[in-house]
Write a structure and sequence with these properties.
Radius of gyration: 30 Å
Order of helices and strands: HHHHHHHHHHEHHEEHEHEHEEH
Number of helices: 16
Length: about 400
């Protein structure tokens, strides 16, 4: 029972020790938060260093008092959920002996991050703490690399599998989170979740969705960073054909010009695959920009660009010829395939432009790239590779 004037201060609970203790703690915290705000105001207002240090000590003491309050409740009522909840609000205290060592401090904090928080307790899922705790760990504590995140998620799934509600929440949340990620390479996380957890375990999803997901994963998995690029067949059209076809309508439409090759036939230290079409407004800017980067920087470094027009038919061929001639894009590998469009599905070309970067062994080292990222990524890859070679 309470009243509408001061509903927290006047709240009285009967028949529930959990809520009785929690209500008392809320009232305690209201008082302490006022003291906290007063101290913070005094610290901001004073210019006296001695006074400021004194106030900082009082602030620290206030924090210690709250910690002691929580610990006393946990110790006195270890079996109540209020103890589980209040303990879960506590942050990890890093020992003073390692506070000045950045690596040691991070390692300790990460190792003990869940000491006060049981990720497998479904009751915590129904509090404001659970998702914030999980997301903070994944976004700010874990190294932002697919392998590191996958290892952590495997632990999460193992610790929540015992409870259907918790496990379903964890699967859906993580599947969506990494499906929307804008960071390159994070699709490996979603593929891992789908392949080893969602497809075999998502009993709530209908058969049609699971079948579609299987098909989607079958496309994405061969395109993950580190995989060898699918070796599709394309048709190389030489510079001479573009120039000769400029004012020749029949030649513009002619689909059989050039010769077939495979991506594996290209010998270069790096290969850029750029899928584009002349109708695409983004391509009209990106393709000439890519050509400028190629001529200014890439060509002299034994880096090849395969510029792949994805338009179909005679109309698509004419637009391709006109665009290449208008922008004089002659010196890289101009390619298409007038007979088969399977490469678009194989390389998941849903929008254009799409740019993939391959190393000398034709392994994918970058994808979904902007033109401005190409040189930076190549330089970073070279630097990392040189460092590994020196270490070994």
């Amino acid at each position: 029972e309470t009243d509408t004037g001061k509903y927290v201060e006047n709240l009285k609970v009967k028949g529930s020790l959990d809520n009785e203790i929690f209500s008392d703690f809320q009232i305690y915290m209201m008082v302490k938060q006022k003291e906290l705000r007063d101290l913070q105001g005094k610290i901001e207002a004073t210019t006296d260093e001695a006074e400021k240090n004194k106030l900082q000590e009082e602030l620290q003491a206030l924090g210690n008092e709250r910690l002691n309050k929580v610990n006393s409740i946990v110790e006195e009522h270890p079996d109540l959920f209020v103890s589980t909840f209040l303990k879960a609000t506590l942050d990890i205290e890093v020992p003073d002996s390692i506070k000045d060592d950045g690596v040691a401090r991070y390692t300790y904090y990460k190792a003990h991050y869940f000491d006060n928080f049981d990720i497998g307790d479904v009751r915590l899922l129904h509090t404001p703490l659970y998702e914030d705790k999980i997301m903070n760990y994944l976004d700010r504590i874990v190294v932002q690399a697919p392998d590191s995140i996958i290892a952590e998620l495997d632990e999460f799934f193992a610790k929540t599998r015992h409870d259907s509600v918790l496990y379903r929440y964890m699967l859906i949340t993580m599947f969506k989170k990494y499906g929307k990620s804008q960071y390159m390479g994070m699709d490996a996380v979603q593929v891992h979740i789908a392949k080893y957890y969602y497809i075999p375990d998502a009993w709530w999803s209908d058969e049609k969705y699971i079948d579609e997901l299987k098909e989607r994963i079958a496309i994405l998995e061969p395109l993950l960073i580190g995989k060898t690029a699918p070796d599709v067949q394309l048709r190389f059209v030489p510079k001479e054909h573009f120039i000769q076809a400029e004012n020749d309508t029949a030649l513009k439409k002619y689909p059989h010009a050039g010769s077939f090759f495979k991506i594996s036939d290209i010998e270069a230290d790096f290969t850029v695959l750029m899928f584009w079409e002349a109708n695409c407004s983004h391509c009209k800017k990106a393709v000439p920009n890519m050509y400028e980067v190629y001529k200014d920087t890439l060509q002299e470094q034994n880096i090849q660009v395969i510029s792949i027009s994805t338009l179909f038919g005679e109309d698509g061929k004419q637009k391709w010829i006109d665009f290449v001639n208008k922008n004089e894009l002659y010196d890289w590998v101009n390619a298409w395939n007038p007979y088969s469009y399977d490469y678009k599905e194989i390389y998941d070309v849903r929008t254009t432009p799409q740019i993939y970067l391959l190393n000398k062994d034709k392994e994918i080292i970058g994808k979904k790239l902007g033109v401005e990222n190409i040189v930076e990524l190549i330089n970073a890859y070279k630097k990392h590779k040189n460092k590994d070679e020196q270490t070994n």
